[in-house]
Write a structure and sequence with these properties.
900 residues; Jelly Rolls; 74 strands; 47% strand
């Protein structure tokens, strides 16, 4: 039985092999063997096939229809009318595409391309005018995406130009005002609602789709010229590099600006002016062109802006609906890709009526041959350019957190109004897009608050706070718009409703760049000493200037250096830097994982404020130079850091500046270094990882089941740089060095003296000492002896003292002495007379011998009190003598007998 089964399988393989090798390439597989189509006055379909067709090499890529090969070729001779219509019909092939080429199979240029313009199902239709009669043009035909093989039918019909208006026939062109012959013929660009609407032209991809479609909403965008003149662009020879303009410059091949950016070429819009039977032209600045490396030609930069929005029922203007995410400003190559008739509804008037080629009096003005040239591009009147969904940048990225539900995509053409048009307000459209491949509705509600300027509000300034896209908003301030303007520090939050549900954001505290302390204390000190200053608050900074200057101290209590003069310092409370960490601390936290060096492995995070990613932890499988990349939501490189790593778990220094943004990516450039990624089999590995009001990590390129490469994020929110900082002036007063001087104090006083009034310089100090009360010194209270009087002078914290001394003596006038005369030391060799008197006076004395003879006499001066007199008797012989003393004050007299 097994052998029989094997035999059947082998026979089947042989059959399939023989079948495929039996399909020969069609005869018109290459341009050189193109089949000539007859051109008739009516469409006569002839059937052909592209079975077995291969890709044609060396010929410019078509500009529509997702060309992947499998093409066949036709050619025709241009009829005398110069116009031709090419139409296709279904066979076994049901989705075909064709492009019109000018050239000779070796040098070719695309003239036009169409995908679904025919009324015959998903088949193409092309109309083209202004061709050279008798010349040969080529038609390339293939199945969309090279996945549609089989039979199809095609015909070629001669077409008369819809009018006589041409570059060489201004007289055949009409003015917008009927009958006028002098007018501007302006273009009018609109976004085509046939190519993109509520049901067609958009293609949703899930967050787990393969690159490059991961999380994209791809869009077909048609830009039609429904005006009276062409949209024509003429490049100049002036270029922009950053902010520098290079005049009359001819850049060499592969030239890049010094900062690494692509050079931009300034362009002019060529405005047509009909003056009777001739044209006049005006060249006006209209932005710039830029080289598109993928397409290999020049694009109009910032030509289209795509936004994904949620409808706010309270807002009538679609362009004011909340933005969920903005696409990259798409750069187009402006060309005549197809016609208004062929696109079946991309061209409409103000009333919504569909316009065909015959509705344009100046149809084809511009030449109808604009292409992706470096010297001129444009869209002729009645022509359409289509930027298909499969082309670069023709998409909007759906946020990683988004849920299924009703969204709207809004297309704005020439959003910056570089070009002059008839109507500047009709070049946009809105299409309802019901998303079905994102998170389930009403799960994981979120609301984010972004402050691109940080969390510090400079004094006197305003700042914009932005909420993530939602259907409705309620701010802590009571406002209900997506964005608000604040001018005061405080705590802010927003509550928002999305298809995921209703949620409230983290609370963001906006702080002032500086605040004057509410409490402070100055100081006054002596020369050569330190002052002690105080100011309350957090992160109090002391400077030596009112603005700028040097930071001299941080803290509340500032002790100055020793001061020689009064000095003013300036203090403010400045916000503290926010530092911290978040994300898994351990690289093996999930228990499973793998090593990767793929650019397609990355973390997705939101930065609500700008911050610095200081360090992360990685687990490297091998040593080498690691290129860490920070990218936008679209994977565009913001910055890159090269770090040398060793094998194993380690913390690496990044110091990478992170701007505020939605769904930023932190990944790796393709390299030999492999980093560990953590995984779980199903469910959510732990997202979101949050640092409140600063950032959160919400997922990875592989969804919620993987955590990629970078663990334990350490961050710091930088301080804002403001032009001026409000500071409080606090002065440390320094007192002059002179010591105080006491005046009004005599060196001596009698103990009976009256109280003395003290004085000193400088005034205002305090006297202290024995018998001092206030400014009064009382000798009588102090008592006999020497006393120190201290004077202390205080100014602020500077205290100076001085001391003066005074002696208190006894006032003998207060004692009453009784008159007394007596002899002492008698008998002795030197007898003495003690005389006590109450008043100063004289004493007269005489001395007699035993015979009564006068021997000596004299006078003594007596002082009040006790007086001791020693008679001169050393020279007298021994014996008895009489000593007589008489006092003059009271005539007291006394005689003593002295033995010698």
């Amino acid at each position: 039985m097994k052998n029989f089964t094997y035999l059947r399988f082998t026979i089947l393989l042989v059959f399939l092999f023989l079948y495929f090798i039996s399909i020969a390439a069609p005869p018109n597989d290459e341009c050189i063997n193109a089949i000539e189509l007859p051109v008739a006055t009516t469409c006569n379909f002839v059937q052909y096939s592209n079975e077995g067709a291969t890709a044609s090499a060396g010929i410019p890529q078509p500009i529509c229809g997702n060309y992947q090969g499998g093409d066949v070729w036709f050619k025709l001779v241009v009829p005398a009318t110069g116009g031709v219509q090419l139409n296709a019909n279904v066979g076994s092939m049901t989705d075909g595409v064709m492009a019109l080429y000018l050239g000779d199979c070796t040098t070719m240029a695309v003239l036009a391309c169409d995908d679904d313009g025919s009324p015959n199902g998903l088949m193409p239709l092309l109309e083209y005018y202004g061709l050279t009669p008798g010349s040969t043009v080529y038609i390339r035909f293939w199945g969309y995406g090279n996945n549609n093989f089989g039979t199809f039918a095609i015909c070629a019909k001669a077409m008369n130009p819809p009018n006589n208006c041409a570059l060489n026939n201004a007289g055949g062109c009409s003015c917008p005002t009927p009958g006028a012959t002098d007018c501007q013929l302006l273009p009018d660009i609109i976004a085509g609602k046939h190519s993109l609407n509520d049901t067609n032209g958009w293609y949703e991809f899930s967050q787990l789709a393969a690159n490059p479609d991961k999380g994209l909403l791809r869009l077909d965008v048609a830009t039609a010229n429904v005006g009276w003149g062409p949209m024509e662009v003429i490049p100049t020879n002036d270029y922009l590099c950053g902010t520098d303009t290079l005049h009359n410059f001819f850049p060499p091949s592969n030239f890049v600006c010094p900062n690494g950016a692509q050079i931009r070429r300034l362009i002019n819009q060529k405005v047509y002016h009909k003056a009777g039977n001739s044209f006049q032209f005006e060249l006006r600045p209209a932005g710039f062109m830029i080289y598109h490396p993928t397409h290999g030609h020049i694009h109009m930069d910032d030509w289209g802006l795509y936004t994904l929005r949620l409808r706010d029922a309270s807002v009538a203007d679609t362009l004011q609906w909340p933005i969920v995410n903005s696409g990259i400003k798409v750069s187009f190559c402006l060309l005549d890709l197809t016609t208004c008739s062929a696109t079946g509804g991309d061209c409409i008037d103000a009333g919504g009526n569909v316009l065909t080629n015959s509705d344009f009096p100046n149809y084809g003005l511009g030449g109808g041959n604009y292409n992706c040239g470096n010297d001129m591009q444009g869209i002729s009147v009645g022509k359409v350019d289509i930027y298909h969904s499969y082309l670069d940048e023709s998409f909007v990225k759906i946020p990683y957190e988004a849920c299924n539900g009703e969204y709207h995509v809004v297309i704005q053409i020439d959003p910056d109004n570089h070009f002059l048009e008839m109507n500047e307000n009709n070049n946009w459209l809105s299409a309802k897009t019901n998303l079905t491949q994102q998170r389930q509705s009403n799960t994981g509600p979120y609301a984010y608050l972004f402050s691109e300027g940080g969390n510090i509000l400079c004094n006197g300034n305003t700042m914009q706070l932005k909420a993530s896209g939602a259907n409705s908003f309620t701010w802590s301030t009571g406002e209900t718009t997506q964005n608000i303007i604040i001018n005061q520090p405080g705590k802010y939050w927003v509550r928002a409703t999305t298809p995921c549900g209703t949620a409230t954001s983290d609370t963001l505290e906006m702080v002032s760049n500086s605040a004057i302390p509410a409490q402070y204390k100055a100081d006054t000190v002596c020369t050569g000493t330190q002052a002690h200053l105080f100011a309350n608050g957090n992160n109090t900074k002391w400077y030596d200037a009112v603005t700028g200057g040097n930071l001299v101290f941080t803290g509340n209590n500032f002790t100055t250096p020793a001061l020689t003069g009064s000095t003013t310092y300036y203090v403010a409370n400045e916000p503290l830097p926010v530092v911290g960490s978040f994300g898994p601390a351990e690289t093996t936290f999930s228990g499973n994982g793998y090593f990767s060096s793929s650019v397609d492995d990355y973390l997705i995070f939101n930065a609500f404020l700008p911050f610095t990613l200081k360090n992360v932890t990685v687990n490297a499988q091998n040593a080498g130079n690691l290129n860490v990349q920070l990218r936008t939501i679209y994977g565009k490189l913001i910055s890159e850091k090269t770090v040398a790593v060793q094998v194993g778990v380690q913390e690496i220094l990044l110091n990478m500046d992170i701007p505020a943004g939605l769904n930023l990516q932190l990944g790796i450039a393709n390299s030999s270094v492999k980093l560990y990624c953590s995984t779980v089999a199903s469910g959510n590995i732990g997202y979101p990882y949050k640092f409140n009001s600063i950032a959160n990590i919400v997922g990875s390129a592989d969804g919620d089941i993987q955590y990629s490469m970078y663990y334990n994020w350490k961050i710091e929110v930088p301080m804002a740089t403001c032009g001026s900082v409000t500071r409080l002036a606090i002065t440390a007063m320094v007192v002059p060095p002179d010591a105080p001087v006491i005046t009004g104090l005599a060196p001596t006083y009698l103990h009976t003296a009256s109280p003395v009034t003290l004085s000193a310089m400088p005034a205002g100090g305090v006297f202290s000492g024995t018998a001092v009360s206030g400014i009064t010194f009382s000798p009588a209270v102090a008592g006999i002896g020497t006393h120190d009087i201290t004077y202390t002078y205080t100014l602020g914290n500077c205290t100076k003292s001085t001391i003066a001394s005074t002696t208190i003596k006894f006032d003998s006038a207060t004692i009453h002495y009784n008159t007394e005369i007596k002899i002492i030391n008698n008998p002795a060799s030197n007898p003495q007379i003690l005389i006590t008197v109450n008043e100063t006076g004289k004493a007269e004395w005489r001395m007699f011998n035993e015979a009564g003879q006068l021997i000596q006499k004299g006078n003594y001066t007596l002082l009040r009190g006790n007086n001791l007199i020693t008679p001169e008797m050393q020279k007298l012989s021994h014996g008895i003598y009489l000593f007589e003393i008489k006092l003059s004050a009271d005539n007291a007299k006394k005689i003593f007998k002295i033995l010698r």
